[in-house]
Amino acid sequence: MKRFKLFSASVLIVFSAAACSSETTSNSPSASPSGEQSNSPSASASVEPSAAPKEVTLKIGLPGSYDITSKKIIDGFQAKYPNIKLQIEEAPWADFTTKIVTNIAGNNAPDIWFQENAVILGYGTRGVAENLEPYIKRDLKTEDYIDSLLSAKGPDGKIYGIPHGVNPIALVYNKKLFQENNVPFPTDDWTYQDMIDTAKKLTKDTDGDGKTDVYGFQTASSITQGWIPWIKASGGSALDAGLTKATFTDPNTIEGLTLWSDTILKDKISPTREMQTNQNYFQSEKTAMTFLQYSGQINLNKNKPDLDWDVVKVPIGFNGKRFVPVVVNQWLIYSKAKPEAKEAAWTFLKYYLSDEAQTFLSESGASLPVKKTALEALEKSTGKPANKQAFTKGVEEAGGTLDENPSWNEWRAAATPILNDILDGKISPTDGAKEIQQKVQSVLDENK
User: What is the residue-wise DSSP string for 66-123?
Assistant: First the structure.
């Protein structure tokens, strides 16, 4: 699964203007939170399935094409519902996410497509994404799915997406490096301090030239595998519970940023950010541990099939609690699609959530399914990693999103350069947090 991509400010401005100016095709519109008229059903409305026509065309957008969405799912749906004729609109992820803004402005977007959860929440507040809550109430048994099924619930209580897949992180480790140093393997009961202490033991100058050759841990600069886990482990956060106030100057958040950067600057158990641009340290067996996003197993198994590795849950934090960052891409139904296309799109989503399609999703390795039966089958499957419950049970126990709100892309873009400076030692965590606080709060205030 692709990592989150950033919209530029200019693209967002175009999008906002387009969302407010596009005409609706609904005969009985309801106002969206932005004031735009939309034909989305309200949260309290019931959705009656329309009489299925003999044939209906459904336009499906696939960012990243079949590298991300299993072709088995698309083919399986087409075989099961031959009356629904599919028009597939595929493109590389970055191209798709740029083009979709123009398509929305021209009111010619696909009937259904997927993007990052934060983007979908933004679409929801702008009246672009259909509220799926009535459909869910009508047709799904939510107890058959994990909580992530409803992760696209917006601040207004409406549900704007259905998960394309769930991508949590876990702690991955190289068994050979542990064995060579007579160090016990990590366990699911580890704490962050256990991880740091063990990383120190595994950081080695193997040739005696005074330079580190093998590191105990690889610290990422990204949000999912980098700074978010560390600030959450310290009891901090990026935003408050209401997702409207920045909390980077909270002492717990600053402590997390300090511990995160200390792995490189003070403890020296990790290669620097600059060094990591030239080498994949874990695949090269030059680091013993790092945080791994679930989808990362695909390249790891492909590029290093003989590497002896496994995973454990993200360690328990310094605050005594576990937090497992989860990335969720979401399918949305275009709010201005024709009624028969909306019903066809929902039929596709029901199929996507079926045992058959969720099994196809599991087999792809791109993300975890959200149906419990598919997860149970995945846990019993063979192949690396052996401890798949590090991901599945980790999400169940302590899964959480990345303090996402409709302006997530914007405030993250404002914070990233300063976070990089902290990790590079160019600014202290305390001073950097003050700068980030100001910039992020400014973005939040502008998007109220």
Answer: GGTS-HHHHHHHHHH-TTEEEEEEEE-HHHHHHHHHHHHHTT---SEEEEEHHHHHHH
**Cβ(341)–Cβ(111) under 8 Å?**
yes
Q: Tell me how far apart the alpha carbons of residues 214 and 95 are, in angstroms, rounded to a whole number.
A: 38
Question: What is residue 425's predicted lDDT score, i.e. its pLDDT?
Answer: 98
Tens digits of residue pLDDT in 260-292: 999 999 999 999 999 999 889 999 999 999 999
Whether pTM exceeds 0.70: yes
- Give mean pLDDT, residues 222-230: 97
Looking up tokens 């932005």 gives 34
For 351, what's the count of Cα atoms within 13 Å in the CB-facing half-sphere?
Answer: 17
Answer whether 99's CB lies under 8 Å from 5's CB: no
SS (H, E, C) 333-380: EECCCCHHHHHHHHHHHHHHCCHHHHHHHHHHCCCECCEHHHHHHHHH
User: Which of 214, 183, 367 lies closest to 281 in space, CA to CA?
Assistant: 214
Of 138, 171, 143, 164, nearest to 313 by C-alpha is 171
